[in-house]
Specification:
- There is one protein chain.
- This protein is an all-alpha fold and 185 residues long.
- It has six helices and two strands, in the order H-H-H-E-E-H-H-H.
- Strands 1-2 form a two-stranded antiparallel sheet.
- Helix 2 runs parallel beside helix 5 and helix 4 packs across helix 5.
- The longest helix is centred in the first third of the chain and has 25 residues.
- It is globular.
């Protein structure tokens, strides 16, 4: 894949999803106080963002493996072996949003992250409720969408850095309106 193909197919999709998330700030501020706020827009964003994560994880696995593993957990095992710090990467949100330090993949070392579990619960069991009577669709909240978006940003950066015709690092080219440009360890 060339840099131009990546920018057209993957980075453009990221920017569209990021734009949609930022637009929700007009109604629900991107702030820790609103992390539990859920909405139909967040359902759409979480489902689409996690689908993109799965696609990019599969693409990255294909670079390193002859046979692409099934399931996000297995794909991330391959990626963590190739990029040992992947589960430690942090990103910070930018001003004017509540400055938040996000480590979206830290729980993938032992199981799956809360936001990925929420994605699966919404995708497969949206109307199922827990003991307290809360439906799974309420897991489509600001926090889970923000963490999924951070994971997608990190995977896009990793994919970009694997391209052969890249002159500048992803830090210089892949500018996010939501996250700081530096990946932090």
């Amino acid at each position: 894949m060339t840099k131009d193909e990546f920018l057209k197919v993957y980075w453009k999709q990221y920017r569209l999803l990021e734009r949609d998330l930022i637009q929700t700030d007009e109604y629900v501020s991107i702030d820790k106080d609103n992390y539990n706020t859920f909405s139909s827009q967040y359902i759409k964003l979480l489902l689409t963002t996690c689908s993109e994560i799965d696609s990019i994880a599969e693409l990255l696995c294909g670079i390193h493996e002859d046979k692409i593993p099934y399931g996000i957990r297995n794909k991330l095992d391959v990626l963590i072996e190739e990029y040992p710090n992947l589960k430690k990467y942090r990103v910070n949100t930018k001003y004017p949003y509540d400055i938040t330090n996000i480590t979206p993949m830290d729980k993938f070392a032992d199981s799956v992250s809360d936001w990925w579990q929420a994605y699966n619960d919404i995708k497969h069991r949206r109307m199922q409720s827990n003991e307290a009577g809360r439906y799974n669709y309420t897991k489509a909240n600001l926090k889970n969408v923000l963490y999924a978006m951070a994971a997608l940003y990190i995977l896009n950066r990793k994919l970009y850095d694997r391209l052969e015709d890249v002159g500048k690092s992803g830090e210089e080219v892949l500018i996010s309106n939501l996250f700081e440009d530096k990946l932090i360890l």
